[in-house]
Write a structure and sequence with these properties.
Blueprint: H1 2-34, H2 38-44, E1 57-58, E2 75-85, E3 96-107, E4 112-122, H3 125-128, E5 129-131, E6 139-141, H4 144-164, E7 172-177, H5 192-213, E8 219-225, H6 232-241, H7 246-252, H8 271-278, E9 288-289, H9 293-298, E10 305-311, E11 316-322, H10 323-326, H11 329-345, H12 351-360, H13 364-380, H14 389-395
Parallel strand pairs: 2-7, 7-8
Antiparallel strand pairs: 1-9, 2-3, 3-4, 5-6, 8-11, 9-10, 10-11
Helix pairs in contact: 2-6, 4-5
C-alpha cells in the first residue's frame, strides 16, 4: 500500500492539471450544442445504427432544462428491490434464493407506510434452467449474470402486484433501482431463445400489465440510475455536430472518443457532465429515446425505453420510463415531479428505493446462515451435504 499511495498521488496530480482545460472544453461543447435546432438534432439522431457509438434519439430538444411541476396533495410511491444468493457449484445441490423487498409510501391527507420482504427458493428444473423450445438439447442454467436478469423481471412482477393493491383513487409512482434496458442481452452474450424468454415471456408481459392499469388510474413506471456513466446524450450531441460521413466515423470514433474535429470536443465526457452544468435542483433534461439494440429490437413499441436526467440535489440521476409514460404529458410530469419529491425526502436519492433495499438486502452473514441451513436440512434427510475440496480448503486453511 505504501507503493500504491505514491502512484495515487501522481494520478490525482495529473487530474488536477487537466481540470481547467476540461471545464473550458465542456463550456465550448455546451455552447455549440445549444445552437443546434431541435429538428436538426432529431433528424441527425433518427438513425444512428451505422455509427460506431450509441447515441440517443432526440425527442424534445438536443439540450435544455425543464422545471419540476407543482407538488401533488395526495399520492403513493411503490418501490421494489431485490437481491439473491447464486447457485453454488461447490454444494451438492443446485438452488438459488431470491429476496424481494419493497415499500408502499402514501403521502398527503392519509399518510401510511407498509414494508415487506418476500424470499423465494428456486429448486425446480423449470426455475433453474431456460430451455430452447425448438430443441430438447439446448438449455442454459440460471446463474451469474443470467440470474441477475431473471431477478430484474421478478422485481417488476412484484412491483406490478404491489401497485395493483394500492388505492385506486391516487396517482402511483412505481419505482425500481437500475435500468429498464436489459443491457447484458446486447451483442452475442446470450443465444436468441434466452432473450425471448427474458424479454418476450418475462419483461414485456409485466410492463404491459402496468400499462393496462393506466386505463383506469394514473400509474407511472420509472427506473432510477444513480450516478450514471452513460454517454448516450453526449453522443447525440456528437452526432448532431458531426459533418463527416459514417465511413470516416467508423475509422475515427468509438463510444467515448473521436479523432476528428469538431466531434473530439465531446471526448471523455459523460452525460451527467452536461447536465451538471445545465440543470438546477429538481429540473430535468429533455426526454430521449435509447438506441440500445435490446430496447430497439426486442421490446414492443409501447415499452421501448426513453430517459431523462434530473438534478437530484446531490447528483445527476438518470430516470428511465417506457414509451407509454414518455409520450403522455401527464404521466411524464408525474414521473418528473414524484421522482424529484422522493429524492428530496431521501437526501438526493429516492427514499422508497432506499427503504426497499433495506428490506431486500442479503448480508454476508445471511449467506453463511443460508448455507448452514441448507447443509443441515440435507443431513436431517439422510442426504450427503459434502462440499468440494476447494471450498473446504478456503474455509479451513492449513496455514
Amino acid at each position: 500500500m505504501g507503493q500504491t499511495v505514491l502512484q495515487l498521488d501522481q494520478f490525482t496530480q495529473s487530474m488536477r492539471g487537466a481540470s481547467q482545460a476540461r471545464e473550458e472544453r465542456l463550456s465550448e461543447l455546451v455552447s455549440l450544442a445549444l445552437g443546434i435546432d431541435p429538428d436538426t438534432a432529431s433528424d441527425m439522431t433518427a438513425d444512428t445504427k451505422q455509427r460506431p457509438y450509441l447515441a440517443a434519439e432526440v425527442e424534445e430538444s438536443l439540450l435544455g432544462a425543464y422545471p419540476p411541476p407543482p407538488p401533488l396533495a395526495d399520492w403513493v410511491v411503490a418501490a421494489v428491490d431485490g437481491s439473491h444468493i447464486d447457485v453454488d457449484r461447490h454444494l451438492p445441490v443446485a438452488c438459488y434464493l431470491l429476496n424481494f423487498g419493497g415499500c408502499v409510501l402514501t403521502y398527503g391527507s392519509k399518510p401510511n407506510a407498509a414494508l415487506f420482504s418476500e424470499p423465494h427458493l428456486a429448486t425446480t428444473r423449470e426455475e433453474l434452467y431456460i430451455s430452447d423450445p425448438s430443441t430438447s438439447t439446448s438449455e442454459e442454467m440460471i446463474s451469474g449474470g443470467l440470474l441477475g436478469l431473471v431477478r430484474t423481471v421478478k422485481e417488476l412482477e412484484t412491483l406490478a402486484n404491489t401497485i395493483k393493491q394500492c388505492p385506486a383513487d391516487l396517482p402511483v409512482l412505481g419505482l425500481v433501482d437500475g435500468s429498464l434496458v436489459m443491457w447484458p442481452l446486447s451483442g452475442q452474450a446470450y443465444r436468441p431463445y434466452i432473450t425471448d424468454a427474458i424479454v418476450g415471456d418475462g419483461l414485456l408481459p409485466v410492463m404491459n400489465r402496468l400499462e393496462e392499469l393506466t386505463e383506469t388510474r394514473q400509474v407511472v413506471l420509472a427506473a432510477y440510475v444513480s450516478y450514471p456513466r452513460s454517454t448516450e446524450a453526449i453522443n447525440a450531441v456528437r452526432c448532431s455536430i458531426c459533418p463527416h460521413d459514417t465511413t470516416i466515423c467508423t475509422q475515427s470514433c468509438n463510444n467515448r472518443r473521436s479523432t476528428q474535429q469538431p466531434c473530439d470536443s465531446a471526448n471523455d465526457f459523460l452525460d451527467r457532465d452536461l447536465f451538471q452544468r445545465l440543470l438546477e435542483p429538481g429540473w430535468r433534461s429533455p426526454i430521449y429515446k435509447t438506441n440500445s439494440s435490446v430496447s430497439r429490437d426486442s421490446y414492443n413499441e409501447a415499452n421501448k425505453v426513453y430517459f431523462f436526467y434530473i438534478n437530484a440535489g446531490e447528483e445527476i440521476g438518470r430516470v428511465e420510463v417506457p414509451k407509454w409514460v414518455a409520450k403522455n404529458k401527464t404521466l411524464l410530469s408525474l414521473a418528473h415531479g414524484l421522482v424529484w419529491d422522493q429524492c428530496q425526502r431521501g437526501q438526493g436519492y429516492p427514499i422508497a428505493i432506499s427503504e426497499s433495499h433495506e428490506q431486500a438486502v442479503v448480508s454476508a452473514g445471511d449467506r453463511r446462515v443460508f448455507r448452514r441451513m441448507l447443509t443441515d436440512s440435507l443431513e436431517r434427510q439422510g442426504l450427503t451435504a459434502s462440499t468440494s475440496q476447494k471450498d473446504r480448503s478456503k474455509r479451513s486453511p492449513w496455514v
